[in-house]
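Good morning,

Attaching, inline, the backbone tokens for the sequence recovery test we're adding to the shared suite. The designed sequence is right after.
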């Protein structure tokens, strides 16, 4: 209902709406692996093996990425990322990943289009390219056009659009030009007419374009009516780059007369020069580098992807087994780089495999090289069926699936342990209880058989030597809370640093932690015992405020897993019972 007011200025208070804090998605791993094709140095999200095959091709038979992904999905994982690793520098041409390509010439013999496979690899050498002129679309003038005019009137504009290359001709004269704009039955041209054209001659207007047909063994794509003019809705570079799953195009724009600027016809030529870059991979190919946005490789390319909270590297071990550039020291260097990446992130965690062939003693030696609360080691390797044959593979992919399943069913505060491992038929090393006790005490998480209960993941410890960060779920719970507060409190920046703001922050963080306590993520008989939030004059004295800072202290009591159950059994002797009865 309209309110009648006297003319003047009115102020209506409006409270700023702030989104409540919430935990982000967890149990989303990235798998670093070696593939036949796919983007390099850019993690791609997939939701199943079929999507993996579509983007990256069939898994390599001698690699561990395929079994790791299957283990992830078999154990309850739903979404993950795949980061393709290949050698892109520091080797001969046939050892470095390269993109297959072909250069298309125009009618004047000048390069006009560079066609490349969508990503590096020898798979691109199988891509066939066909270029043919589009069936000419012809209409005619309905009004005379004088020399110097920049427009003509035609009977039909079907097939004509901005950027269309056209030939205006009568029985004696021809002129090539380009359509600048279509207005009803009127064509506005980029160049003025050089002579008079009479409609009764007759004078024809013929549209010239070209078609591209591309295919490999799995896909086939057709693009019709393409143009070399950037203003055209069918501009070849934009159309192919946005719509093709096989190729990318660069228009080279040679200085060729318009009548010769169309690409020459090609009949099923293959792209060439593609290479996989899988020969002698080294630690540097996995670690990569970070030279800023647009120039990140390997592990370092993950710094931009906050949704990834688990790092899994099954093919690190296959590279170690196949490459002369890899040593155990190189494996350690890559795992250390993964840990460092996780330590620089709020909520990222590394799942590490032991090197192939490790026994009990070697596993203990490998464990001594790491001390971090952002990683966990898993032992032993597992045996799976692959194409009907037994194959021994690293366990990290199956473990990542258990993490995802546990996070989804209960929450990140649930220790990902005492869970059945699906998709495996045996373990590479069978451990005795004494071995399990030693490995667990040193921070190595093992798998063990339990008869009818199946093969189970039996450990949830980090590689940290600090008691407060001993358990995986404790570390990941605190990390998830930190990430949620970091994301949800960005509104605070540039707000007035005053007691009113401190109270708002305290209330918002306390409300968030209260919800987590109600879900069982925090320990304590009451919310007051589970957490404390302090944001006041004591945490923000004058020198802190004058420095433009705001400090909030959060104390948490996180639930810890139950590892040992002790029953005290006391036997009462029969003669002692009788004596007690006689008394």
């Amino acid at each position: 209902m309209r309110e009648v007011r006297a003319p003047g200025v009115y102020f209506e208070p409006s409270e700023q709406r702030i989104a409540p804090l919430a935990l982000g998605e967890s149990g989303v791993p990235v798998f670093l692996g070696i593939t036949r094709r796919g983007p390099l140095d850019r993690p791609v999200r997939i939701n199943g093996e079929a999507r993996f095959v579509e983007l990256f091709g069939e898994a390599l038979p001698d690699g561990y990425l395929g079994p790791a992904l299957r283990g992830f999905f078999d154990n309850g994982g739903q979404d993950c990322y795949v980061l393709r690793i290949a050698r892109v520098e520091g080797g001969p041409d046939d050892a470095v990943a390269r993109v297959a390509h072909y250069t298309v010439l125009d009618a004047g013999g000048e390069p006009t289009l560079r066609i490349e496979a969508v990503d590096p690899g020898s798979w691109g050498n199988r891509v066939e390219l066909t270029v043919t002129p589009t069936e000419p679309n012809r209409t005619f003038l309905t009004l005379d056009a004088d020399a110097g005019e920049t427009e003509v009137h035609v009977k039909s504009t079907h097939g004509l659009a901005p950027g269309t290359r056209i030939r205006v001709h009568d029985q004696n004269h021809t002129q090539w030009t380009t359509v600048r704009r279509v207005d009803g039955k009127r064509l506005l041209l980029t160049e003025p007419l050089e002579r008079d054209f009479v409609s009764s001659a007759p004078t024809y207007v013929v549209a010239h374009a070209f078609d591209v047909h591309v295919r490999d063994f799995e896909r086939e794509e057709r693009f019709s009516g393409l143009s070399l003019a950037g203003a055209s809705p069918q501009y070849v570079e934009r159309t192919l780059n946005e719509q093709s799953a096989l190729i990318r195009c660069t228009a080279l724009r040679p200085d060729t007369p318009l009548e010769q600027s169309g690409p020459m016809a090609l009949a099923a030529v293959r792209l060439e020069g593609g290479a996989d870059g899988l020969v002698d991979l080294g630690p540097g190919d996995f670690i990569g580098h970070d030279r800023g946005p647009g120039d990140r490789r390997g592990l370092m390319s993950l710094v931009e992807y906050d949704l990834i909270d688990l790092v899994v590297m099954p093919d690190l071990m296959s590279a170690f087994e196949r490459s002369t550039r890899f040593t155990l020291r190189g494996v350690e260097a890559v795992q250390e780089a993964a840990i460092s990446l996780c330590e620089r992130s709020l909520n990222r965690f590394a799942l590490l495999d032991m090197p192939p062939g490790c026994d009990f003693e070697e596993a203990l030696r490998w464990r001594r090289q790491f001390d971090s609360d952002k990683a966990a080691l898993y032992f032993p390797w597992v045996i799976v069926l692959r194409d009907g044959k037994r194959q021994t593979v690293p366990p990290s992919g199956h473990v990542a699936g258990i993490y995802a399943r546990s996070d989804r069913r209960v929450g990140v505060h649930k220790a990902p342990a005492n869970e059945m491992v699906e998709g495996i038929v045996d373990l590479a090393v069978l451990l005795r209880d004494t071995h399990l006790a030693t490995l667990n005490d040193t921070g190595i998480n093992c798998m063990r058989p339990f008869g009818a209960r199946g093969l189970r993941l039996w450990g949830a410890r980090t590689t940290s030597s600090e008691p407060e960060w001993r358990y995986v779920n404790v570390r990941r719970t605190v990390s998830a809370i930190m990430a949620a507060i970091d994301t949800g409190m960005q509104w605070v920046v540039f707000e007035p640093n005053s007691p009113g703001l401190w109270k708002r922050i305290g209330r918002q963080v306390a409300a968030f932690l209260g919800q987590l306590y109600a879900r069982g993520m925090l320990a304590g008989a009451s919310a007051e015992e589970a957490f404390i939030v302090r944001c006041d004059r004591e945490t923000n004295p004058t020198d802190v405020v004058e420095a433009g800072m705001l400090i909030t202290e959060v104390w948490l009591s996180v639930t810890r897993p139950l590892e040992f159950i002790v029953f005290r059994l006391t036997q009462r002797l029969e003669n002692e019972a009788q004596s007690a009865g006689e008394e």
